[in-house]
Amino acid sequence: MPLYEYAWFIERVRRYMEDGMNRDTAVPLAIKDCIREGIFAEFVTKHGTEVENMLFTQFNMDDALAVRYEEGLEDGIEQGLERGLAQGIEQGMERGLAQGIERGFAQGIERGELRILIRLVCSKLQRGESPEKIAADLLADEKEITRICEAYLSCGPEENAVYEKLAGDLRGSE
């Protein structure tokens, strides 16, 4: 059986299937075409049933491989998305933690600086110094010193009370 005849036969089966026939219809029709055209005729006449069985097996294998490929592709995409999501979450948490630590560190420094400034201002107010003199002595912003002095007058000389008043005012303005 020459390869050309086999290729012609297979091509005929595929063409019928592309035209919308199912395998069960396309294979026997292609066998009849072979006999009519004299291609592969003697072999097909003797072994037609075996040829049909062989082709059904081959086409079923092709279908099975195609289905397996599609399933593998879907599995690969799903696994890729899961891994990408897991990596994205991990990286996001790392970045968020780093930014949170950085932000927390910066806020801690700001709070510490405010507490020191409050301590110095309270100390100078207890000695009777004016807000203007305190600002000049500490090389600080006069508005900031005035805010601390006003909190001192409303809360009393307790540094923590002054800090809480100012921190509350800051939270309320955010």
Distance N to C terminus: 88 Å
- Rg, please? 44 Å
Q: How many E-type strands? A: 0
Number of domains: 2
Largest sheet, described in full?
A: none
Query: Structural class, from secondary structure content?
Result: mainly alpha
Can you characterise this structure?
It is built from six helices and no strands. The chain has about 170 residues and is mainly alpha-helical.
Task: Please give a handful of descriptors for the protein shown.
174 residues; rod-shaped
What is the secondary structure topology, with strand pairs?
Elements: H1 3-18, H2 23-37, H3 41-126, H4 131-138, H5 142-155, H6 159-173
Summary?
This protein has 6 helices and no strands. The protein has helices at residues 3-18, 23-37, 41-126, 131-138, 142-155, 159-173.
